[in-house]
């Protein structure tokens, strides 16, 4: 067990790294962050910011020498860095989970091997015949890079097979997957934590709404039939067990028209759709990440209030920034801003959690705010 007073390391200092750092420091741990961006959000709250690339071995050596354990805020840490650290200190979750999550083909194949259903897909590589690949699938479809995609980045809509060559050329990537577009009824996610001893806790499911492939709202409690919720928890547990996972794991699900459940993707870390836990649960997903990393018992995940989380995107900053007065008029809304210096359209600048006696009321509060801000969706 790693106890308060020890120093923890994190690879990546974005908002997820920042919220991990705040949770760890509140619990009495020191935190060192490795991130190449001098202005990364976690730098402002960490004990030390190692400003270096993720494969800088002198920075990794410093981290290994000074930290009792290391985690990551994102899945795209180079494998060489993970292997280097794993030989020296506990790294949770480990390199296997990250390697699978950073590659859409490996990830989908891994789910299928566990007997879980995914959207129909086909691999497209440079040497492949585009027309042949197009014949394997039904359209409309989405072309996605196998690596480094997030918030809909590295994705192209492909309405018909004839659009595929142009979409493939514009992605300019060595490898992509072509995925049939599912008629979605709902999207939701399961965030779980698994301890060193293999104990698991599941946060209440979040019903997720996206706008242009970026998470917009997470609604909790999710309005999803109990049987589907159970199936999703079982699937997520099966993934965590297969990886002998330690840490916080998020799994995204699609519900198809006929009520069929598909696994979309996983994130080997806290997830945007779990930010509601900061204000609405006994312990947040970041508290849990600290506990799992340190080999401690997991905390209570109980929901204290219905809640809706809304992301604040850089779009809101286009004309001088959001009208904060209008936001602070709502006493039910809790504000989280990451301190990012530069706002760009689509960039996640912060989020808010609206708490109310039921999710519909919380949604209505955010709808009012959106109207006040003239930020329709
Ligand atoms: N096959 C699909 N059918 C329908 N919608 C999809 C499909 N794939 C992705 N989407 C939509 O785009 C969003 C982002 O895609 P996702 O594969 O999760 O990539 P990212 O890594 O950018 O989160 C999903 O949450 C969903 O709303
Ligand atoms: Mg996603």
Gist?
The chain has 377 residues and is α+β, with helices and mostly antiparallel strands. The chain has helices spanning 15-26, 57-66, 79-86, 95-101, 104-113, 130-134, 164-171, 226-242, 277-280, 285-293, 324-328, 359-373, and strands at residues 7-11, 30-34, 48-50, 69-72, 121-125, 141-145, 155-158, 175-180, 184-194, 200-202, 206-211, 214-220, 247-256, 261-267, 307-313, 333-337, 348-355. It is built from 12 helices and 17 strands.
What CATH first level of the largest domain would be assigned?
Alpha Beta
Query: What CATH architecture label of the largest domain applies?
Result: 2-Layer Sandwich
Shape: globular
Sheet with the most strands, sense and barrel status = 9 strands, antiparallel
Protein architecture, described:
The chain has 12 helices and 17 strands. It has 377 residues and is an alpha+beta fold. Strand 13 (247-256) and strand 14 form a beta hairpin. The mean pLDDT is 97.
Which properties best describe this structure?
377 residues, alpha+beta, Rossmann fold, Dna Ligase, domain 1, D-amino Acid Aminotransferase, Chain A, domain 1, four-stranded parallel beta sheet, 17 strands, binds adenosine-5'-diphosphate, binds magnesium ion, PurK, ATP-grasp
